[in-house]
Recover the amino acids of this structure.
């Protein structure tokens, strides 16, 4: 019995998305991987077809879809074997901040563009010296009359080059309690004093325009504070459950995909005597073990998706799922590659890219060590 | 039992480290890896200082030392940089077939140039759709007067696009007689890359080991002198297996250095990086990760050193080489993976190097047979023939 109940509407939506991705995304992926960026037009196409921010209100042009639509998009995007068109970050991590905490004016101004793909978003929390430890943040936001002056640098910012709108976390230097000092700010592309640094050269995520961002006496109007001043940490905490759950959803889809490729390969390819790889007992056991773990991950994850969609607090389980599934990704990528042999060492093997790409899942959105720390804390240990 | 390196071995280690420190430029390595190229003249420089042919005999201008000393160089170079270190140590890939089995004149013609770094070699063993099973080679070499005529296609040849000579495993006698040993009838033949009839294509973009891309090599009526036969005619399969055994110990050495290099970088990082108000090295979980990593390296080191020592003392058996490669490569994978994790977001960035140590570790784990192949070899050896 399935834990999640996908309706016919969901299924039609998934099919429509698959058709769209086959036509507009998959054929371009290799080029985007070479270019180290995805053209903005690809975002617009996705938006026009209604695949961005599927949960958004019709008031702004959204379709008011439930959480399963977000799950469907995240899963289907993972199957394109690239990460540049990082719609999950935009639709289900960044824009929800705007939707939940933004004023009516802010929402009117930005939401339609976020849904149509004309506004690509990013969130800037991480700093060179503050990774998973957000309290170590150094970027400052000082009030000067009707303006806010931002100073500081952010790093590892997903969609950093393409972003038209960035949600920036910064500290009020006058506030001594660090947990009340952080606020979130909306910074538009082109604001004087906001510069993008270099695009970062990475192990994987080639098509993803991860970048450094710099703020140097960057003045923004006071209206660009997102939500209540000083509530930055509270807002981040509230949204991190979904962020980590989205990582787990993408990770689970990646694990399923890599394993499927491997099984297909092992059934078709034979050794010199004509015996398919899938008939070797050792290979069979490896595949069975991997499939067992993938199914365990799926069962756990679907339960969390159901809980999250119902508004339950599943912080502990989400931390567990994020670490367990992303660790599984690394393990599966490596074990699958072994089955491909020397061909697995070339980029012609799709799992070579998979191995490079999944390696960051256990690091971003809070490292897996941080996930275990959170779980331990909430378990009362 | 003596677990100490002797004075000359320590000096070799020191000299290799100094060479790598002076010549291995991080930025240049990262840049050239993307283009799948090796720095200009570095093979010649390593050759001049005796690092390439340290385990070659003196009659071909080699260092006259053992595989053990060669392993020390492999380890040291890869500790400094796994991509360049392994590419340098593979500049003479396959030439050990000639070194161990070749006739005097053939050795003297080619090996001194390899030792000097003036010539690079590679081995062309695998064929399309064959996997790791070399019992059914379809590349042929037929005698024609004083020459061999080669026809066929080899695949996944490391650095096949740049090597000056290839050691090619060919079928030299028809394999028709039923009941005949299927392993007979193969020979190793040395072929210069600039011979007519050779085409190199399908140079693949590599995921790991990016300074030695794989290529396909096609031979179409390629004529080489009859004297280019390495060892005895019909002995090619056995000589190839012997070479693989030696090469697996070399790969273990490269993997060992890869693990150590990733560990060094992680250790430096956790000692200076502060998060949550203290150094990462002060967290119990970090300390235990380091303890695990160091233990794995220690285990890899001794199984590798022991295999090299057995090779030099002529007591080596295939399973020892396979155990060393499997164990050291696994250590390299696990240690470099943990190094990435300890460096967090920086670990994923090219600039911080550990990501390429991880990719190179994967090459060590897969190249010359992934773990399944090694386990088959080990099992064959420890089970023996069943009644």
């Amino acid at each position: 019995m399935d834990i999640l109940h996908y309706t016919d509407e969901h299924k039609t939506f998934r099919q429509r998305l698959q058709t769209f991705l086959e036509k507009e995304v998959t054929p371009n992926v290799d080029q985007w991987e070479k270019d180290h960026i995805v053209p903005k037009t690809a975002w617009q196409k996705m938006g026009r077809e209604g695949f961005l921010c599927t949960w958004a209100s019709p008031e702004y042009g959204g379709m008011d879809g439930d959480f399963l639509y977000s799950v469907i998009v995240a899963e289907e995007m993972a199957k394109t074997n690239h990460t540049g068109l990082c719609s999950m970050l935009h639709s289900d991590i960044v824009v929800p901040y705007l939707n939940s905490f933004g004023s009516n004016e802010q929402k009117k101004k930005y939401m339609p563009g976020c849904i149509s793909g004309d506004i690509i978003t990013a969130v800037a929390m991480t700093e060179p010296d503050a990774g998973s430890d957000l309290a170590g943040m150094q970027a400052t936001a000082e009030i000067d009359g009707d303006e806010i002056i931002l100073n500081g640098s952010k790093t590892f910012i997903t969609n950093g080059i393409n972003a038209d709108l960035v949600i920036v976390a910064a500290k009020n230097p006058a506030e001594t309690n660090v947990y009340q000092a952080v606020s979130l700010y909306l910074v538009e592309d082109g604001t004087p004093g906001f510069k993008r640094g270099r695009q970062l050269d990475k192990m994987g995520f080639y098509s993803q325009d991860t970048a450094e961002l710099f703020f140097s006496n960057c003045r923004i109007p006071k209206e660009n504070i997102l939500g209540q001043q000083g509530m930055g940490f509270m807002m981040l905490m509230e949204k991190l459950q979904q962020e980590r759950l989205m990582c787990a959803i993408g990770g689970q889809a990646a694990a399923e995909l890599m394993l499927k490729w491997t099984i297909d390969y092992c059934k078709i390819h034979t050794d010199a005597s004509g015996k398919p790889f899938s008939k070797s007992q050792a290979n069979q056991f490896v595949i069975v073990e991997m499939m067992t773990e993938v199914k365990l991950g799926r069962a756990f994850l679907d339960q969390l998706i159901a809980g999250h969609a119902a508004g339950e607090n599943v912080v502990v389980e989400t931390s567990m799922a994020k670490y367990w599934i992303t660790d599984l990704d690394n393990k599966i990528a490596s074990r699958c590659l072994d089955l491909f042999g020397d061909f697995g060492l070339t980029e012609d093997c799709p799992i070579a890219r998979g191995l490079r790409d999944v390696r960051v899942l256990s690091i971003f959105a809070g490292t897996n060590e941080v996930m275990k720390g959170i779980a331990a804390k909430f378990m009362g240990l | 039992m003596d677990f100490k390196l002797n004075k000359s071995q320590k000096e070799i280690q020191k000299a290799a480290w100094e060479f790598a420190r002076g010549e291995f430029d991080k930025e240049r390595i990262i840049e050239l890896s993307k283009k799948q190229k090796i720095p200009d003249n570095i093979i010649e420089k390593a050759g001049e200082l005796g690092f390439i042919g340290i385990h070659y005999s003196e009659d071909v201008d080699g260092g006259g030392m053992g595989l053990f000393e060669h392993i020390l160089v492999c380890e040291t170079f890869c500790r400094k940089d796994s991509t360049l270190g392994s590419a340098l140590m593979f500049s003479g890939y396959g030439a050990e077939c000639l070194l161990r089995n070749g006739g005097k004149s053939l050795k003297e013609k080619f090996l001194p140039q390899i030792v000097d770094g003036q010539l690079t070699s590679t081995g062309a063993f695998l064929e399309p759709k064959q996997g790791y099973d070399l019992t059914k080679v379809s590349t042929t070499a037929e005698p024609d007067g004083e020459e061999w005529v080669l026809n066929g296609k080899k695949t996944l040849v490391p650095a096949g696009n740049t090597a000056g000579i290839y050691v090619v495993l060919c079928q030299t006698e028809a394999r028709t007689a039923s009941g005949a040993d299927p392993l007979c009838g193969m020979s190793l033949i040395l072929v210069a890359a600039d011979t007519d009839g050779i085409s190199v294509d399908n140079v693949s973009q590599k995921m790991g080991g990016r300074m030695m891309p794989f290529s396909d090599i096609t031979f179409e009526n390629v004529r080489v002198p009859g004297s280019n036969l390495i060892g005895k005619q019909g002995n090619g399969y056995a000589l190839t297996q012997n070479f693989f055994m030696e090469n697996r110990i070399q790969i273990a050495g490269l993997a060992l250095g890869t693990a150590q290099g990733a560990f060094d970088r992680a250790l430096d990082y956790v000692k200076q990086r502060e998060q949550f108000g203290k150094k990462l090295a002060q967290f119990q979980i970090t300390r235990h990760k380091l303890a695990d990593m160091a233990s794995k390296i220690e285990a890899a080191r001794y199984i590798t050193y022991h295999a090299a020592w057995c090779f030099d003392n002529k007591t080596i058996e295939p399973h020892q080489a396979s155990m060393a490669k499997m164990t050291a490569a696994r250590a390299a994978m696990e240690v470099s993976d943990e190094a990435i994790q300890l460096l967090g977001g920086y670990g994923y960035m090219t600039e911080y190097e550990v990501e390429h140590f991880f990719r190179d570790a994967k090459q060590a784990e897969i190249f010359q047979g992934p773990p399944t192949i090694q386990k088959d070899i080990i099992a064959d050896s420890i089970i023996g023939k069943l009644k």
